[in-house]
Amino acid sequence: MFMTKREFLARLSTALDKNRYGDKNRLLHGYEAYFAQKVSDGYSESEVCALLQVPETIAGSASPKRLSRAEKAYLKLTVLLLRALMGFLLLVMLLTGMLIISVVLSLLYAGAGFLLGLNPFFMFRHFAPVFRDYWSGALIGLSLISLSALTAAGGAYYLALVRQSLACFRRFIENLLSAKKGGVLQPPLSLNPDISRRANRKLRSACYLSLAFFALCLVTGYFSAALEVKSLLIWRAWNWFV
Amino acid sequence: MGINAMSLVVFSALNLLVHGLGRCREERAKGLLKVLWIVLLFGNLIRYVFVYPVIVGEVHIPIEYSTVAYFLVPAMMLWNKKGHVVWPALYGLIAGLLYFLTMIAAANRLYADAPPYDVYISYFCHGTLYVNGLLVLRKNRVSDRDRAKTMLCLLIVSVRSLLLKKYAIDADELFIYDVLLGNVIRMVLPKSSWSFTVPLYYVALNALILLTLRGFLPEKRRNRRGRGKKE
Q: Which residue has better confidence, A66 or A9?
């Protein structure tokens, strides 16, 4: 059976009308795109038609089946669950990623601050030449350690957020199950982490303090180094990028 | 200049720590102070009895106002005898405050060549004295007797350091002799002016100490002043 694209689409359109298919245009548009793709690959229109099923068969399979109420409800529930699961997985992956990044960054900053800057006993002498003036380096090292504390505080918040999103999902599943069994529904949980007032205050203070110390140490370290080498471009005086 | 900036940062951090400890529970602050006293006392005992004589090979005698305070203040605090808590705290506070002010102003000239770990140990010791002083004086009133005891202690340490000068190692580098012998003036001003500037310096020094002590008025007088102002 040799057909052109136009003939195929016309028959399909008629068959869909007959079956009262709701989203006809979207389906036709999809087949048009398929034809275009195959033709650009080197197939002729009749060859593409041969690859496809007969338009009436396609229209028959695309027509909605009559579902019972229970089937409809089950389908809805499954779709809802799948969507929720996907969203939840994405959220947890994102938050866990942020948590891991913040922990790694925190350790990196602390290590770099200690090795490059403070290094009080010159234990790691080969790291030290980055800063030619010890005390300016120590201040910049302290600023890195403050940044590490700030990142750790961020990590603590992400941890609370991950735990809260897990609790949220658990509540959602429990509610779904109890709805099925006819049990009592519990109110949904907020996605904001459930941190006590005291812990929240402490976390906020830690953030403010570490941020203030980071800024203070960085500014004083930079300007004391600039005064030492008598230039604002300290990296040039210390031959950093040569 | 880096060491001066570092001293400023450490001094700011200590003031924040005092603010934080002042707000937290008294038992917790006391617990932390106790740990600090023990570390300060035993750490310095190890330093002066073992590290200097056995490892370094030099016998160091605590001569400076601060080095005397390293032993005197924690010992008196741990002894905790009524009437002997406020004046050591006041003495330690003066030692700590003067140290940090000197470091902020002139550390690049005085301590530029000191190894970093020495400076960190010194920050810890003076920081402990300063924090302890501020916290103790927050809770206790300073009486005239306490101020007199502090003055007497300063006088005894000064006389003792002058008597022990020939036994001191690197006496010319000790800050206490620069202060007591007026070397600060002798270094800065020409010899022709010493006849009147050195006595003037001693008068100013005594005035400074008295004014520092006057800063801590007895509680009763402070209350009376406060009330007077309100009325």
A: A9
CA distance B137 to B226: 18
Interface contact A225-B117, CB threshold 8 A: no
Instruction: Note the pTM of the prediction, 2 decimals.
Output: 0.69
**A to B CB pairs, distance under 8 Å:** 49
CA distance A49 to B191: 112
CB contact under 8 A, B2 and A139: yes
Alpha-carbon gap: A163 to the closest alpha carbon of chain B (Å) = 29
Interface list for B 110-129 with A (CB within 8 A): 116-117, 120
Contacts of A137 in chain B (CB under 8 A): 2
- pLDDT confidence tier of residue A1, bands split at 50, 70 and 90: low
Asked whether A19 and A10 are in contact (CB, 8 A), the reply is no
Q: State ipTM.
A: 0.73
Angle at the Cα of B64 (from B59 to B66), degrees rounded to 5? Answer: 115
Report domain extents, chain A.
5-62, 69-237
Closest CA to A88 of A164, A34, A157, A33: A164
Joined tokens for residue B121: 């140990």
Residue B9 to residue A223, Cβ atoms within 8 A = no
- What whole-number distance in Å separates Cα of residue A25 and Cα of residue A134? 73
DSSP alpha helix (H) spans, chain A: 5-18, 24-40, 45-51, 55-62, 69-112, 134-181, 197-229, 234-237
For residues B105 and A240, what is the distance between their CA atoms, to the nearest angstrom? 30
Which pLDDT tens digit goes with each residue over A188-227? 777 788 788 888 888 998 999 999 999 999 999 889 888 8
Please check whether residue A222 touches B, CB under 8 A.
no
The pLDDT of A166-172, averaged and rounded, is: 81
Closest CA in chain A for residue B3? A135
Non-local (6+) Cβ contacts of B133 within 8 A are B89, B90, B92, B93, B94, B96, B97
Distances (CA, A) of A7 to A26, B36, B164: 18, 92, 115
